[in-house]
Design a protein that fits this description.
36% of the residues lie in helices and 11% in strands. It is globular. It starts with 6 loop residues before the first helix and ends in a 6-residue tail after the last helix. The longest helix has 17 residues. A hairpin with a 4-residue loop joins strand 5 and strand 6. Strands 1-3-2-4-6-5 form a 6-stranded mixed sheet. It has one domain: Uracil-DNA Glycosylase, subunit E. The protein is of the alpha/beta class.
Length: 219
């Protein structure tokens, strides 16, 4: 991916890649848009906000190399969607099984806050991924921003969420013809450090995703 459609994001992702964090000063940062990652036959699509400046923007793999990823991939591992609970770098052996992880915005934003206009310019990537991931029946939206992006993508695919659309809430479940959307607080430090999101809450979301994508004979 070599998109340069959002000047603010391009400037930030490249500045971070040049200046680096002291702990990673000997590493070569990715510093480009970060693609989705996972099983092409996935039944579950996980959509986050955007790459972290020193996480995905450094490693080149979404949710990899930061504490949010520790929480996410730990939960995916416990639910049987990942072969390991750690996510350190692109060559660490992590494999997803039945799940695919992407983001509403593919470039690291300043202060972890992309704008609605940046989201909308980036949505075609998520639209294309969803069209290619034909087996997806569940979309886990990590946070309100991702929920809004997912709703727009589904509407564009001819499978809108019910109107009026329910407001984002952790544990909210909303069905459309294309997929069921499960809402979950984002595993950001703001949520995990304060206890707003606890491991058992994340586990419950992915247990539900597992149940919804299980073969009918196993339900």
């Amino acid at each position: 991916m070599a998109c340069r459609a959002c000047p603010r994001l391009v400037k930030w992702r490249e500045q971070v890649a040049r200046e680096k964090r002291a702990a990673y000063r000997d590493e070569t940062y990715w510093g480009r848009p970060v693609p989705g990652f996972g099983d092409p036959t996935a039944g579950v699509l996980v959509v986050g906000l955007a790459p972290a400046a020193h996480g995905g923007n450094r490693t080149g793999r979404i949710f990899t190399g930061d504490r949010s990823g520790d929480w996410l991939f730990g939960a995916l591992h416990r639910a049987g969607f990942a072969n390991q609970a750690t996510s350190l770098h692109r060559a660490d052996g992590l494999e997803l099984r039945g799940a695919y992880v992407a983001a509403a915005v593919r470039c690291a934003p300043p202060d972890n806050k992309p704008t609605p206009a940046e989201r909308d310019r980036c949505l075609p990537y998520l639209v294309r991924e969803l069209s290619l991931l034909e087996g997806v029946r569940v979309v886990v939206a990590l946070g309100g921003f991702a929920y809004d992006a997912v709703a727009r993508v589904l509407a564009g695919a001819g499978s809108p969420l019910p109107a009026p659309r329910p407001r984002f809430a952790h544990g909210l479940e909303v069905a459309s013809a294309r997929a069921t959307v499960l809402c979950c607080y984002h595993p950001s430090q703001q949520n995990t450090f304060t206890g707003r999101l606890r491991p058992e809450m994340l586990d419950a979301v992915f247990a539900r995703a597992r149940a919804l994508t299980a073969p009918r004979s196993a339900r």
